[in-house]
Design brief:
The protein has five helices and eight strands; from the N terminus they run ααββαβββββααβ. With about 150 residues, it is an alpha+beta fold. A hairpin with a 2-residue loop joins β4 and β5. It has a single domain, classed as Nuclear Transport Factor 2, Chain: A (Roll), CATH 3.10.450.50.
Length: about 150
């Protein structure tokens, strides 16, 4: 698969299915994932750490769905405007608007940056959710300041 839009579409399918092995396959050892609201000091690099990062926030959700998307591609850069619907086991829900920018080289996503509002997520999450995140496995954290 070498069409960047096709690569990102297949990636989204794997992510929303929470198929971690398939998600891992889209990244190389130098690939970077950055949630822009949390800053470059909390990025993940490489397939294993990117999956650890994703699992930390998503695995405990009882529902995780992808909303309608607008996809724009220019060369190896794909921009996806979409929503994510999160449901926690305790009943809280949130719909998060996202813009995702992915740099694709062949079948590999080399850089993935997510733009979303941290306040929207935190205000909807269960009261102890942030504590659960910060007490989880943070071995994936890497600082990419100045690299992207």
């Amino acid at each position: 698969m070498s069409d960047p839009k096709a690569v990102t579409a297949a990636f989204w399918d794997a992510l929303y299915a929470r198929d971690w092995d398939a998600v891992r396959s889209f990244f190389g050892p130098d690939s970077i994932y950055l949630d822009v609201p949390t800053g470059p000091g909390a990025a993940a690099r490489g397939p294993d750490d990117i999956v650890k990062r994703l699992r930390l926030g998503l695995e405990s959700l009882t529902g995780y769905d992808h909303g309608p998307a607008t996809v724009v591609g220019d060369g190896g850069i794909v921009v996806t405007e979409h929503t994510e619907m999160w449901r926690w086991p305790t009943g809280e829900t949130v719909t998060l608007p996202f813009v995702s920018v992915q740099h694709v080289d062949g079948a590999t996503i080399t850089l993935w940056k997510d733009y979303w509002d941290l306040g929207t997520l935190v205000s909807a999450a269960p009261p102890d959710w942030m504590d659960q995140l910060t007490s989880g496995d943070l071995s994936w954290m890497t600082d990419v300041t100045g690299e992207i």
